[in-house]
Design a protein that fits this description.
With 282 residues, the chain is α/β, with parallel strands linked by helices. It has a single domain (3-281), classed as Alpha-Beta Barrel (TIM Barrel). The chain is built from ten helices and ten strands. Helix 5 links the parallel strand 5 and strand 6. Helix 1 runs parallel beside helix 2, helix 3 crosses helix 4 and helix 4 packs across helix 5. The radius of gyration is 18 Å and the shape is globular. It starts with a strand and ends with a helix.
Length: 282
């Protein structure tokens, strides 16, 4: 039994995300708890919180996952953007707690040309500040990036470097994005190569830290450093690659969120169905 779902909209009211997850036949789902394209945060009303938590409980869908908005950059060299990013992280940790969401996913940002050392310091300070401001049981999941220019967190070693400097390590987990990993140079398409990647992850970070999979195919090739998601099986990872990934027990037990396109070829429901079909074939 796998747990697979998609990112759903909170339009209208945050609890409507649960209705949309049910409609799409999700076992798990991901949201932005607020408008992802703006800095302004609207406070959650008590009734919204109550409806959301009750609907999640009655649906049996678990876990609900929150994703940091697009604008925050925890590695930002510009002080104003950086401060707003830290504030956004603090706010999201609080919102997750109110909504009984166990995981908050964050990208690690871009150093914008100021160098990795500077970027690392900014990220570490941001997370340590947020954790000192908000003491709850929400786990912050660091997401691996596609290794694009100036981006942070494209290698397991980079993620480890950040984790080592976090004061409350028990509050940190990892979200592994298959598209990002693949285009950053981690081969996932054969049993042998996937096993080598998993072993490398275990040695550097520790597989016990892996809490969530972003299951996405890639529109660009291995080590291309191009972050473009594709429908499951229709990209460079391909159906055979996903059979290998979904056969891997250490991945299959984790919640999987699809962040695949919605276009005239396929929508969310079809991609969820495709993942379930591939699992049935194993």
């Amino acid at each position: 039994m796998i747990r697979v779902g998609v990112h759903v909209s909170i339009a209208g009211s945050i609890d409507k995300a649960v209705d949309r997850a049910i409609e799409k036949d999700c076992d798990t789902f991901q949201i932005f708890s607020r408008n992802p394209r703006g800095w302004k945060i609207r406070e959650l009303a008590e009734i919204e919180i109550k409806r959301f938590t009750e609907k999640v409980e009655h649906s049996g869908i678990f876990p609900p996952i929150d994703h940091m908005p697009y604008l925050p950059n925890l590695a930002a060299p510009a002080d104003e953007v950086y401060q707003r990013s830290v504030d956004a992280l603090i706010e999201e940790l609080k919102r997750c707690d109110l909504l009984h969401i166990p995981y908050l996913v964050t990208h690690l940002g871009s150093h914008r040309g100021y160098g990795k050392a500077e970027g690392f310091q900014r990220i570490v300070d941001a997370i340590n500040t947020a954790f000192s401001e908000v003491d709850n049981r929400v786990m912050l999941l660091l997401e691996n990036t596609a290794g694009t220019k100036n981006s942070m967190g494209g290698t397991f070693e980079d993620i480890r470097h950040i984790m080592d400097r976090i004061e409350h390590k028990e509050r940190i987990g990892i979200c592994f994005d298959t598209c990002h990993g693949f285009v950053a140079g981690y081969e996932l398409r054969t049993e042998k190569s996937l096993n080598a990647t998993m072993q490398h992850f275990d040695e550097v970070i520790g597989l016990e830290r892996l809490k969530l999979i972003h299951l996405n195919d890639a529109k660009a090739g291995l080590n291309s450093r191009r972050d473009r998601h594709e429908h499951i099986g229709l990209g460079y990872i391909g159906e055979d690659g996903f059979r290998v990934i979904l056969k891997e027990e250490r991945i299959r037990v984790l919640p999987m969120i699809l962040e695949t396109p919605v276009d005239n070829r396929r929508g969310d429901v079809e991609n969820i169905r495709k993942v379930r079909e591939l699992v049935k074939e194993l």
